[in-house]
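Milestone 3.1: sequence recovery, worked example.
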């Protein structure tokens, strides 16, 4: 092997080592970043859960026993999601269901709705979205009281044809310059109520678990 060939070989080995090290660093960074994102999402979800059902209103650890839900068009999710049951002295206080509104102005809107055993909404929170800042992002509780329209509502209050924004002839306020976003959330929340009505008994079963084709308790 002459000097040129040796030099080329050393260069090739060096490049190979560099590529392996770089790939390893990227993989480690991706894993650590994914862990941080997952932790942030878990923290945000827990914060939203306790805003809907405050700790003073239940005595169980909701996060310790999530209810796994198979994909259902009424909830909008394409993958398995988690619901949570809040109880006090062993009796159900509320079920918190996830929802995905696929028809937001700039994409999916994710949120949760707390529903009491009688089917009345306890609270709604939007947990993730990409709506326009200053307009559609007013669906966030920290930016606007818009979501406070939902507590006390149910499938029968208002009537089905009034579960719309006012621009469409319904009872819910829209936002100045943004109608698509609130329209999507109102529809998604009502769909979640419909899901709850169909699976109420299974979702409220606290100790023995939920054993149906659409929901299972871990």
């Amino acid at each position: 092997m002459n000097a040129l060939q040796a030099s080329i070989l050393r260069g090739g080995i060096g490049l190979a080592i560099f590529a392996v090290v770089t790939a390893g660093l990227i993989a480690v960074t991706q894993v650590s970043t994914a862990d941080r994102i997952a932790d942030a999402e878990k923290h945000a979800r827990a914060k939203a859960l306790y805003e809907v059902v405050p700790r003073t209103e239940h005595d169980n650890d909701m996060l310790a026993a999530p209810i796994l839900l198979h994909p259902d068009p009424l909830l909008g999710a394409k993958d398995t999601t988690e619901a949570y049951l809040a109880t006090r002295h062993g009796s159900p206080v509320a079920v918190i269901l996830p929802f995905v509104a696929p028809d937001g102005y700039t994409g999916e809107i994710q949120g949760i709705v707390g529903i009491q055993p009688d089917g009345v909404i306890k609270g709604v929170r939007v947990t993730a979205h990409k709506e326009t800042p200053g307009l559609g992002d007013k669906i966030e509780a920290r930016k606007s009281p818009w979501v406070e329209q939902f507590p006390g509502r149910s499938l029968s209050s208002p009537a089905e044809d009034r579960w719309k924004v006012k621009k469409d002839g319904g009872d819910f306020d829209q936002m100045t310059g943004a109608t698509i976003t609130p329209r999507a959330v109102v529809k998604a929340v009502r769909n979640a109520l419909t899901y709850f009505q169909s699976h109420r008994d299974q979702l409220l079963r606290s100790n023995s678990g939920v054993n149906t084709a659409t929901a299972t308790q871990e």
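Residues 207-218 have pLDDT under 50 and may be disordered. Residues 165 and 174 are 6 Å apart (CA to CA).
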